[in-house]
Amino acid sequence: MPHAHTPDHSGAAITMLKVQPFGESSLILTTPATDINGRIADRHSAYHDNLSPPLVWTPVQGAGAYAIIVEDPDAPREQPFVHWLIWNIPGEATSLPEGLPNEASLGLVGGATQGVNDNGTVGWFGPRPPVGHGVHHYHFQIFALVERLPFDEKTPLADLVNALKGDALASDDLIVTYEAAGA
Asked: What is the CATH number of the domain that holds 60?
């Protein structure tokens, strides 16, 4: 039986491993955008329509806002590839719709802010693993925050992570997969 190719990856820690929430609440993130095996639908890939996936989570009492960071630690580079940074999602929210516009300020999501991804654009940049590189794992990390964060879209991931370290009530990590066609 042939051995499945597993990608070389960064080896660097994703955000979830750097932030320890101080609250006792649980938080569960899900998406209807995956199949039974956890593979995200093609329409969310940068090879296809590049639509941000719909997300649903359980509410956390006392949350003033939520932040979501999507990283691919299987990317062939030193650091995980950041596919999405979005924060200041209102504390009463429990979902995001599919296909958010790639704009820094999202009025339709209570003024949430989207940051610059590692493709150099604002908002969602869908999976685009190299052809033949194997299955990549995309970590959708959600954090319930005590309050909104005072950052704009140009805020680097490191600054966002430092703020999350002192502000996260709860977190969850939803892992979805994607492999380039022709692999």
From this structure: 3.90.280.10
